[in-house]
Each structure stands twice: as C-alpha cells, then as structure tokens.
C-alpha cells in the first residue's frame, strides 16, 4: 500500500503539472527562465516555500533539533525578517531593472567583470555544495520513510544510497530541463500543499505516539522529560548560540532570501510588484509555522530514539516517520517528500542553467546566440551538472550533521555576494573595482578560516557565525572606502524601463510589521536566558 500510494500521488502531481503547463512557452529566454513573467502570488509563495523546504531542511534541521533542541528554529523563524526585507526593499529594486539573475543586476549596477565573477561563484557553489546535498538528504529521507532496505532487500546502505540518488536526480532533471520555471513553480505549489499537510501530520502523530495515544499527554511528556530542549535561546556550546542570531545567522538569512538565485528567481517571474510582494509575505507567514514540522519532530525523536546518538541524528526523521505514520499515509508522505526533493533539486538546477546560459554562454561564448540556442545550452549544461551531482552526492555520508555542514559552506559565498548586493543598492558611489575586490577577498578570507590552520582555530574560538559577521563588516568597509576614494559618477541603469507594473501592494508595510512582532513573541514565549 505504501508503494502504491507513493506512485499514485507522484504520478498525479506530474499529470496536473503537465496539464497546466503544456501550452507554455519553453523556447524563449523569458518563457523558459522566467515563466513569461506571469507568476501570481500563490505560485510564487508555493514555489518559494517548497524550494526551501527540501530534505536538507526536513531531514537536516530535524536532525539538528535532535541534537540541540528548539534553538535551531532560528533557521526558520529568523527567515521571516529577511523575507519582509525582500518584499519591502530588495524586490522593488530587482524588478525595476527587469533582471533575470542576481549577477545580471550586478552587471547593471557595477560592470561585466563583476557579473562574470559572481556567476562563477554561484555555479561553483551550486555544483559542489547545494545540488549534492539536496540529493544526499533526499535519498536518506526516502530510505527511512519507505523502509527501502526492507522493501528492496538491499542490506548495503551505500549501494542503496547510490541507487536512490540517481533515481531522484534523473526525475528532477526531467522536470527542470524540459519544463522551465513555470513547470517548476506549478509542481512546487501542488507538492507544497501536500508537504504542509504531511509535515503537520508527522508532528501530530509523533506527539500522539509519545503520549501513548493521547496528544496532550505527548505534549506534557515532552515538556516534562526534556524541558531543556524547548528553549529558544541557544547556549554557547549550541550549534546556534543566541548571540549569533545578530551576526552570521541573520546575514545568512538575508542573503538566502534576498540574493540567492535559486530562491528568488521565481520572484523575478512575478507579473507585477504587488503580486511578488504578496507571494513573499505569504511565504513569511508560512515560515512562522516551520518549527512545527521542521524542529518539533526532531525533539520528539530524541525522546523516542535516545540510542540513536548525535552521530546518526540525520537518520532520526526518517525513523520517526516510519514509526509513527500509519501505513495508509506513508506512501502519500513519501511522495510529498519526493516532491520536496525534486522541488529543491530542479529549482537549483534550473537556476544554475539560467546563470550559465544568460551569464556565460550569451555574454561570453556566443554573443549572437538565438533564443533557442541559449535555452539549448542551458539544457546541455544542466544534464552535465546533474550527472556530476549524482556522482558526488553519496560521498557526503561522512559528515555528522549535514545541515550544519550546509550552513557552514553556504557562508563561503553568501557573505561576499550579499555585501556587494546590499552596498550596491544603498550606496550609489561604490565603484566596480570595489565589488570585485570584496568578492575575491571575502571568499579568500572565509576559505582560509574554514580550511587552513591556524586560521581554523581562531574561527572556532570566536564561533564561525561571528566570524562571518566580522568578514561582512570588513567587506562593507572596503566597499565604502572605495566609494569615497574612487566614487562612481554615473547612475547605473537609469534609462532602463520597468519590465512589470511597479505599483506596490498597499498592505505590505503593515504585514511586515505584524510578522516581525510575531517573531519576537515566539522567541520570548520559549526563552530561558539562564543558559547564557
């Protein structure tokens, strides 16, 4: 029944997606990479949420909660602040220029060399970090939920991991490379509804199992047995110390939700600024509920499987789902998880193809390329990248916490790019040479801090997230100093006409204020500052 329900729901999503997108324009640059700039707010919100909520979140964040408890909700709740900033400040500036990629915006704001450097950084990071992690965590989650070792009779975890990684990678590549952005957005929205329902069901059944059939008893047992894990304030030995919320953690969120091509590409396809803002704010509302299905199950898993240990924490979520979910729903949830995996993978792959085709192929390799040639170059590059990702993903088995590894590696390129983007928007005098120096300097310093002794010892002493905050301050200082020494005189992009209706959503400011108040209330409700 589990396998049958899995196949039925997965097929249903594919059929509905094809029905909605079969007449779409998949041959032109705007049609393939930006969905023809026709996305409405529900599709933007659904695609934003599900692109974010893949198994590196479902598996990885619940695994982090197994180790550290409620404090890791920072990776969900603090995102609301960044999303509000995206709706109010960043999105209007991106849509004003009608850009397709973040590097394209940097080319308008700075120069072509800055665009090339940023493109290479994005492509390298997605190929070496993001795509393999999505495939690895996705395969790990499916193996646990569907109990594939038992069903397939494969005892070797490594062999099974390779098999599932390639299955997910091939299906995801078909979505991303043949359908384009609108196909990704439609399938994301359908799967997003199922993911929310399924995720909340897991939280419900987990607490009910802990309470031996009674939900309230489960909540009471959780608060009495492990009260220290229900603290929103992370201690200094926690993976997310409270002080880091104001430095590296906040900066990582700001880049992720305002400058990360994989995430914000669907907002570039909005039919208007108002639709884009409503989609981003809706995503922020949904992120407030994220801890219910991305953190709470991990805390419950600690009570149910204490023998698992921190070294196997990433297996906790799959074990929990397999234990608490009725067989009749296991296939449905596995299909939803499959959709989440495909969403993040095909979104990242689609964004990578966009970066390559428009940033490198069209700008440098074949400047006279037709629409069809640009789209075809993206598909070819996408298949090569997909094969590389499927080959390297199983090698991640050696890492104790895949989510912690992801956040650490993200900082390598998040901070330099975000510093250049934010200073470019805020300070008109910052010149192109400053952007290039900041990008190269930032990656070099962070790389040394992560991988070269004795710099690694210094980073460990001050905590890696504080280290990222300090690097950000340094890079901004470099940009501002160059802005004074060699200021730009021309206003970049002043002659560009608006690509969409730029009338803002009238309620966006009020909605943003209310959401930030809710973030503060959630933290205060669960706060125990005695751990500091």
Q: Tally the helices: what do you get?
A: 25
Order of helices and strands: HHHHHHHHHHHHHHHHHHHHHHHHH
Class by alpha and beta content: mainly alpha
- What characteristic shape results from the CA principal axes? globular
Main sheet summary: none
Percent helix: over 70%
Rg, alpha carbons: 22 Å
Report on the architecture of this protein.
By secondary structure, the chain is mainly α. The chain has one domain: Sodium/glucose cotransporter. The protein is 75% helix and 0% strand. The chain contains 25 helices and no strands. The radius of gyration is 22 Å and the shape is globular. It starts with a helix and ends in a 7-residue tail after the last helix.
List the helices and strands and how they pair.
Elements: H1 2-21, H2 29-34, H3 41-52, H4 55-68, H5 74-77, H6 79-97, H7 102-109, H8 112-145, H9 148-152, H10 157-179, H11 181-210, H12 215-225, H13 248-258, H14 261-268, H15 273-288, H16 290-294, H17 296-304, H18 316-324, H19 327-365, H20 371-392, H21 402-426, H22 432-451, H23 455-462, H24 464-485, H25 508-525
Helix pairs in contact: 1-11, 1-19, 3-11, 3-14, 3-15, 3-19, 4-8, 4-17, 4-21, 6-13, 6-15, 6-25, 7-8, 8-10, 8-18, 8-19, 8-20, 8-21, 8-22, 10-19, 10-20, 11-12, 11-17, 11-19, 13-21, 14-19, 15-25, 17-18, 19-20, 21-22, 21-24, 22-23, 22-24, 23-24
